[in-house]
C-alpha cells in the first residue's frame, strides 16, 4: 500500500494544475513546455509525470491522466518506490491484445486494419525482435555500438509498417 501525505498531493494539484482532475496528455505536454517553474522540484515532478504518461505508459492522448498518478508524483519517495514496471508491462500486453482484435458487439473481432496503436512501452518488444531475429533487425534498424542497456544499441531510421513485416516473412521465411 502506498500512503501519500494529503497536504503534498493537494498542494501540487492546486498550485500547478488548478485542481483539475480532467488533465489529458496534450495538456500536460503544454504545461511541461510552457511553464516557467518557480520551484525546481515542481519542474522535476511535472517532468516525471510527463515521462510516465508519454514514455512508460504511452497513454492515449484522448484519455484523462489518472488522478492517482498526479497524486503519486507529488511525493517523490512514494513515486520512486511505486512498481511502474509491472503497470507498464500490463498496459503493453493489453495493448498487444487489443491491437489484433477489436471489440464488437460483445465478441472479439479480428483487426484486419494495417494500422493500430500500441500503448505501454512496446519499444522493448521491438528491440527484442531486432536482437532475437537478426534478419528483422538488419531490415528495419541500424546496429550501433554495443551499449548497456541494449535498447540503446539500435537506431530505426523510419517507421515500420505491418506490411513491411509481411514482406520480410515472405522473402526470408523468418516467422
From TrEMBL:
InterPro entries referenced in this protein's UniProt entry, alphabetically: DUF1985
Domain DUF1985: 12-95
Pfam families given in the database record: DUF1985 (PF09331)
Protein's name according to its UniProt entry: Uncharacterized protein LOC132799663
Native source species: Ziziphus jujuba
Amino acid at each position: 500500500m502506498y500512503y501519500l501525505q494529503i497536504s503534498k498531493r493537494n498542494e501540487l494539484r492546486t498550485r500547478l494544475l488548478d485542481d483539475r482532475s480532467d488533465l489529458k496528455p496534450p495538456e500536460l505536454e503544454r504545461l511541461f513546455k510552457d511553464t516557467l517553474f518557480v520551484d525546481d522540484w515542481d519542474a522535476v515532478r511535472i517532468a516525471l509525470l510527463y515521462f510516465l504518461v508519454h514514455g512508460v505508459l504511452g497513454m492515449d492522448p484522448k484519455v484523462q491522466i489518472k488522478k492517482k498518478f498526479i497524486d503519486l508524483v507529488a511525493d517523490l519517495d512514494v513515486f520512486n518506490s511505486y512498481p511502474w514496471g509491472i503497470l507498464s508491462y500490463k498496459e503493453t500486453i493489453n495493448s498487444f491484445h487489443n491491437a489484433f482484435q477489436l471489440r464488437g458487439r460483445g465478441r472479439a473481432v479480428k483487426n484486419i486494419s494495417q494500422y493500430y496503436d500500441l500503448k505501454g512501452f512496446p519499444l522493448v518488444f521491438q528491440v527484442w525482435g531486432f536482437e532475437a531475429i537478426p534478419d528483422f533487425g538488419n531490415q528495419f534498424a541500424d546496429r550501433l555500438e554495443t551499449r548497456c542497456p541494449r535498447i540503446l544499441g539500435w537506431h530505426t531510421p523510419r517507421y515500420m509498417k505491418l506490411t513491411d513485416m509481411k514482406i520480410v516473412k515472405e522473402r526470408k521465411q523468418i516467422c
